[in-house]
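Input sequence (1799 aa), recorded before submission:
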Amino acid sequence: MSSIKIRLRGHELPKEVFQQEDKGLSYFEVSKTFSVANATRSDVPEQLLELKEEEILQLDFEDNSFWLGDSDSIRQIFSKELKRGATGEEIYLSGEIQTDEQDRSLVQKVAIKAAKVFVKNKLIRPGVGLLAQKAENSGLKFGDKSFEKYGPSVVLSVSESFDLAEADFSRIDPSKKCLLLIHGTGSSSIGSFGEMKGTEEWRKLVDAYGESNILALQHRTLTCSPLQNVLAALESLPSGLTLDLITHSRGGLVGDLLARFADHADGFDDEEMVVFEKNDREADLETIQKITQVLQRKTLKVDRIVRVACPANGTTLASKRLDMFLNVVINLLGVAVGGATNPVFLSMKELVLAAVETKDDVTVLPGLESMNPESPFIRVLNFRGTAKELDSKLIVIAGSSELSVTFKSLAVLAGKFFFRGKNDLVVDTASMEFGAKRKEGNVFLYLEETGKIDHITYFHTERVRKTIQTGLLGKLEEFSGQSRTDGITFLRSGQRGVLGVEGGRYVGTEVSGKRPILILLPGIMGSNLKDKRAKTDSDRLLWINYLRFLKGHLSLLKPSDQDGIEADSLIKTSYKNLGEYLSKTYDVVAFPFDWRLQMEGNAALLNLKIKELLAYNQPIKMVGHSMGGVLTRDFILYHPETYQKLNALPGFKILFLGSPLGGSYRIPYVLFGKDGIIKLLAKIDIRNSPKDLLSVFVNFPGILALLPINKSGKHDFSDRGFWEKLRKASGDDSWPIPTEKDLRHFGEYQKKILTQEKEINYDNIFYIAGQSRSKNSTISDLEIKDGRLVFYATHQGDESVTWESGIPKGILERNHFYYANVTHGGLSTEKKIFGAIEDILTQGQTARLQNSLPKARGDEKDFVAKEEEIFDLTEENTMNTLLGLGTDEDPIPHETPIHVKVSHGDLSYADYPVLAGHFEFDSILTTEKVIDRKLKGELSRLLSLGLYPGPVGTHQIVMSKDVSNSDKSFKGTVVVGMGVPGELTPYQLMVTVSKGISRYLTIRNVREPLEADSGKEPEELKPEDKEVMGISVIALANSFGGFSNESSIRSIILGIQDANRKIRTTYKGRVRVIEEIEIIELFHDRALGILRTVKNLEQDDSREFNISVPNLSLTKKVGRRSRIPFDNTADWWTRIKVTEETQTCGEKEIGKEILMAIATSGAKEKELPLKANIKNIETLLEQMTHRNLYEPEIAKLMFELLIPFGFKEDLKRQTNITWVLDKHTANLPWEMLQEDLNGLPLCIHSGMVRQLATMDFRRTVANVTERKALVVGDPDLKGFMPQLKGAEKEAGLVTDKLKGYGFETQSLIKSSPPDIILKLFTQNYKIIHLAGHGVFSREEGKPSGMVIGNGNFLTTSDIAQMSKVPEFVFVNCCYLGQMDGKAEEENQNRNRLAANIGTQLIEIGVKAVIVAGWAIDDAAAADFCEKFYECLLSGVAFGEATKSARKLIYERYKGRTNTWGAYQCYGDPFFKLEGLNSTVRQGQKFYLLEEVELELFNMIYALESKSISLEDARKTLEILEDAIKQSNLFSEKILEYQAEVYNKLGDYGQAIEYYQKLFNLEKAGFSLRAIEQYCNISCKFWVEEFFKDGKKQSKAIEAITQTIDRLESLKSIGATSERLSLLGSAYKRKLMVLKAADQEEFVSVLRKAANAYYEAARISSFKVAYPINNTVQLGKIIEIITNEKVVTEGKSKLNFARLIQDLEKHLDSKPKEKKDYWDIATEASIALSKVCLESKPKEKSWNELKEAFLKVWEKAGSPSDRKAELEHLEILITGLGMAKSETGKSLWQGLSDLRNSLS
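Predicted structure, token format:
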């Protein structure tokens, strides 16, 4: 590999500093060293170094570990930072490394503190073997003896104080066992076991064995193999010893060999010896022979072995380059030997540097090669089919270090290079418990499960030492680990192993011909294959048969014409549970197939089976798992005729479970021996190497059919030349690849898919995608890079199939895919998704799975794949691995996203309980008021009882079912407290929503169903049994709270997510959480904006929002409205808080300071002090107010003095401002600010209101609901002060204005004090307007307030006594608005009353107040009042109304007055008067056609939703039509909407008049719907005319017949369900005008009506309720009258009960949008159908039917809708009047009574 450039930030260090610790190296030296800083440190210089091919880089980390690597390994470490350019490759060293794991909870970042470059200082150096021997000699010294003279091993004696000496076997006590310590790799006896010295556990071991009987095997772990170590040990040990062993690391391999040879002198059986021979292991064979010879003259027994952290089945660390293994070992050694300058450490470092330079693999050192998982030695040692089982007891101690913080850098690097699973930095935890096979019951396991141990700290850990002590000295049946009976098994919890393996056969059920049929197709390797050539039944099963795998029979799978192998059944483990679950609904046909063979042949067999099943004439469904889905797709392509017949069956559906429909890159990964499956099979079948096995598998045409399809033109796997390139890049030119013939066939197959797959219609086809576990991934791509074959992986797949390659485009486009957090094999075995599978098969959808795929970060999409080593060789794990069944451990952390939908309509029709918010001290207003009405005043009652939320975190839950007489279709509400108005932040909103939703969920406490709860398995629940847990929300705090819609929705969703997580954690997943959020909005433009917001949040890269928004359109609901869209930025009011704070020094008050804080977008708040002299401002204010003139200079000066410099620019940009003031800062003239002498005052170009920052609010506020007003103008002062003509005029103007808008107005002009006081306190008013003189006095005892007589004042004390609080008060009195903070503070200290009327009004709960701050101009005041009231009474919000009024008088009076600034407007800028039914006002002029159209459009839906009374509707329509004439506006839509409004009002004649005007237009632009409605209304009109005057019968019949003809002609354009329903309705109307005596004609028309409705139902696939109910009801009347069954065109009799049953099932499974009256009336209509079908309905049925209609009519429906229902009943009654049967007469009487009670 060529050199690489490295950029970093840091300083180059001088030689005398950086060479110090490496001076002892003989063959390498440091050339340069750099300190390394974080890349963001711009103050540190950038350095560039070029790492040449022969140079070695050392990276030093913050945890004092280091890594030595060449340019190749540096590229691998920093693969994400690697950039390729014209000048070569370059890496920018960011200053840290981090894990690659997807599980971000375990992400570790480690800082790099230095980079050091090594070069060779001598041309010739010893080889790696000699350097390894030198390192061993240095590390294995004992006492004062060098190890140079010793061979592979020497037995030492160990004293209690851990002194080592050559063993004197004469001192051994033969009556006791000996304890032999065997150390680990690169270590020594003291290095491995020295931590036990001095411990209580060591003393007990010494006492038990005796000091003379404790031995240690000091041995070479690098240059000698374990067999050589054992031979030397056996040659030293005396005969007759019984040994117990404690081994560490690689020492466990030596221990296993000792035990093996002790039990079996020949060591290995014949099959195992063949493996040594086939792999040219002459040295091993020779050593085995010598050991056998030694044991012919010696006896030895091994009793117990405590094996700690042994790489018993190899370790991934030893599977790669030697230098990588040694890098880890040397770091651990450095801790053991005590530092970088230790000679032992330096020797090892020299070895690591040499290994980096040579790039040797581990085979150069026999001691390390023995730990390679692919080593023949490891394969033989672990062979499960061996005849050499051991008698010795094995106590395994295993552990892992994923949570350790000691060697973070090693954990990160080992994760990058090696490990995928748990490990202790050197050995895979899964490998530790295998090794030589023991007899049943002889293995015990202790798994150190803290995750904080590493390879060198086991013996430092007390619990491990105690386990060692128990294992050697205790009773093994009481061992703290677990006893097992199945040989070696990797245990995590509980027992598992051979006895738990089910395997077996699944053949489905018999086909009865009476139930729907389901064809279940297995995945690759999911069919049992039987070998007919086998001699016995037990041997006949070839796949999957663990015992035959052990015997090497996998080679028999190679296909041939005479192989005698056939697919017999499905593998029970994978398909039994799913099959049995589905068999409750279906006859399950299991379709096994030989997955080795060509798909065309398998598709032909499937075609024959389907043809056979079609004969049963039953619905058929197909579920294809993995390859079974591919076979299903291929059947569609190869046999389109059969598929067309299948697809035409009612309810036909196909479901793919993780099928690789675009192929899978896992196939080439398998075929090049990289996949764990091949490695596992080669370890089980030791007769065949991976290469041998692949020479069989590569000849499976079925496997080749799963190769990636070349859709992009990137990789053509049908090209033999491409395979040759891959083979060369794999590094083995003899590697088996597919034959030319097989590839040619794959090319034809691939072409068929590429050309024909796009023609597949996916309307009835669905897909469930799985998910890999957190430590696993899915192979996604490959490339030849730098001449090497590189595979890439992703976390966006199920470990076999990526979502990209698996899911076809047609399924994605239809949104027919779902996501389950289970692995590839788990898609057919995981019971928790079985219910979802059945939902999809029956309904074509499910709410139990996520209807979207999780988003991935960029670094999770494609990365270099890490090969997997599988260590668990049990039959159970073999089965799971082959079938793709992941274990429960380490799933991808995943929360099912919350479904979010946005509904456009009235919240009265919300799907779920409505989440609402309430500010402290507020009354029940706006949204809460609507909810309160639905709950019959329950919220108001709770508020009056003090049980209502206010502060953030408080909440109240009210469910409709708990409130008597409430509308039970409205589910209820969750009200959350939002704190003090103006102070709510997004975070607080999130918190309060979280608490409220959490409490709601705990109250509901809907448990995830288990058998104990419901008597059903979870998967047995039908969709209708499973309630969707949802919450309906509106945007909270987006008016008074000052939040934008986006800010509000973000906080609400985050709060709900937080509640879900807390409930899941607290209740351990047993309580259901919110699954769907419905955001409901009345206005169309806002609803669309919210939909865009939630869609953006769904796509947000931060992943903060775990939501799914599957529907890209609004859900329509009753009561929806539209308006002219407006700029949402104008809707935003910025809160600016200005308060006076006391400054203190210690406890001493030193002064006052004014602080100003601006809240931006409801999110952040910044605060600055006001430095100006307030006294100067007050002087200027006094001058300006007394002169009552507008002086821009003073206004500009006010801006400069009152606004801190840091806020000036912010303030200029604000569209609207809310000043939040205390009683001190309210004295300042905020309305008078002007930032530019030539510009406008701020309150003219920006909206501006005030809010009072006080805690003295009345706690319980009783608001007035009546539309009453009080106007007091210029009271009779009897000469006390001059009378005010302006006040008198203003009062008269306001009185007229209020009366004009329907307010009952008490006008007191020139009235006496008694009259004013009497009227004020004896009645309740929504609006109070006061106009007259006002006085303010600072002196105690002198009154402040409105002057109402000679010495009479309306004071703050008077106002405070009001019980019922008005919503709005206007006080137009000079000086009245002035506040003196000190006077108020002193006054409150005595009686808690405010010092002026304006303050007191706010504190007693008035929602909005306007009060004058100084003397005002009379004319300007009158104009202000007129404009303000005109806006407010028309439904304009308070803030906009004040803005419009200010702007009017500013423009009208210019600089002649500053009255526009005198008005201080306190309250919520979004406040609107309650009870205003229309935004249309008398004399209103429209400027836009769209305004008129939308007013009419909204009236249509208001009438339908009953949100407007008939009286108000008619009055509003009258005003609106007058305004239309005045505005001279006209359009086709206006006429069409006018006609529809009159239709809703039941005025059919007027509606027809407007339709006729519409149709007579020269250039018509009306809709076809207008013609349809005209037809419908014409029939209704003539029925009314007939009932008014019976003489018009013939005219009515003629007109209705003409209408029927028109509808028939419309059918020629398109026979829609709507038009056919209207045709049926026209025939019904004709029935109403026919002569009752003419039964034959009546029945004839009745049949025509029923037939029209039936056709309408058929066209809508029997999924629309209206035509089905009419078909059933009219059809039943025909049957009763004629005593004949109603038949369809095909002459088959209609089953009315079945129609209703299927309709109810459909509505339960897929609720329809309730967008109009007829949707809401569906349940009542179904109830009527059921009553008609009963032979003799019971009284209960009639009562329930009546209640159903009354409930619907209470909730929705215009007069026209109600008329239509009664007319329908009249038709049924008329028909039944002709019946002669008792059933008909009974039904006639019941329907007659029902009609009378409803009329």
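Checked by second reader. Residues 101-107, 480-501, 1010-1021, 1375-1395 have pLDDT under 50 and may be disordered.
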